Amino acid sequence: MGCKRPWVQVPLARPVKTILKEIVFFVCCQKVGFSGKVVLLMKLIFATHNPGKIKEMQELLAGSGIEVLSADEAGVNEDVVEDGLTFEENALKKARFVCKKTGECAVADDSGICINALNGAPGVFTARWAGEGNDLIDFTLNQIKDIVEENLGAQFRCFVALVKPDGQEFLFEGRSNGRLIKERRGTAHPKLPYDQIFIPEGHIQTFAEMSHEEKHELSHRGQAFKKLKDFF
Predict the structure, then answer these.
(1) Which helix (H) or strand (E) covers residue 191, if one does?
(2) Which of 44, 165, 173, 186 is the most buried (most CB within 10 A)?
(3) Angstrom distance (rounded) from CA 97 to CA 77
């Protein structure tokens, strides 16, 4: 006599399509609640001490049911040395470190600007190219002062890494093509100085002159985090 199966197939009394619709409705209700308010689905620790990045990510994921905490809020005060040779390496290194420290899902990004006429520089070394804030922009403007405007094409690139406590790792890429200008326009967050001299393709305003909503739709970071949001 053979072994009994551990499951029993029950004949369906209703069409499969109807049952699937009810399942989708139930899942949606679990997410937003019958009151229509978004319920917290998960917590993400963003491996950064940069307030500008935290604010940007919270805005991008608003209404998704994902709570975003900074590394500081999660009790991680150490800085991770970003010595990778690619954006992907740096993003994964930071996310792995925070995930291990907190036991929570961790997200990190690494991004930079690649200037065509400078063979892709500064690229992965953007943040360390020549100091911070205005000093960085002064250095960049000096580097491009003899380049004609037609050749000032550039790309912002971003890689977002998601690392889960169970060891799963995911990467999401965003890219914004555009050009540089030789004067500052608009007001940028001190940690995002390039926003003042970068105009995305098809537009006349710099990132620093745009509203947060406009920038999020176009920016490299906005695109990468949208892919992260869609993933969830």
Answers:
(1) none
(2) 44
(3) 11
pLDDT at 142: 95
110 annotated active-site: yes
Residue 98 has pLDDT above 50, yes or no: yes
Would you state the structure tokens that stand for residue 56, as one six-digit string? 């940007």
The mean of the pLDDT values for the chain is 83
Asked: is 19-227 a CATH 3.90.950.10 domain? The reply is yes
Residue 189 has pLDDT above 90, yes or no: no
Sign of dihedral through CA atoms 39, 42, 48, 49?
A: positive
> Strands, DSSP E only, in 16-148?
42-46, 66-70, 106-115
Could you say which of 72, 83, 109, 110 is catalytic? 110
Q: Where are the domains of the chain?
A: 19-227
Q: Is the peptide bond before 122 cis (omega within 30 degrees of 0)?
A: yes
Flag whether pLDDT at 165 surpasses 90: yes
Nearest to 112 by CA among 101, 127, 97, 92: 127
Name the strand (E) or helix (H) holding 37. Answer: none
Distances (CA, A) of 227 to 30, 31, 73, 133: 22, 19, 25, 29
CA 193 – CA 195 distance, rounded (Å): 5
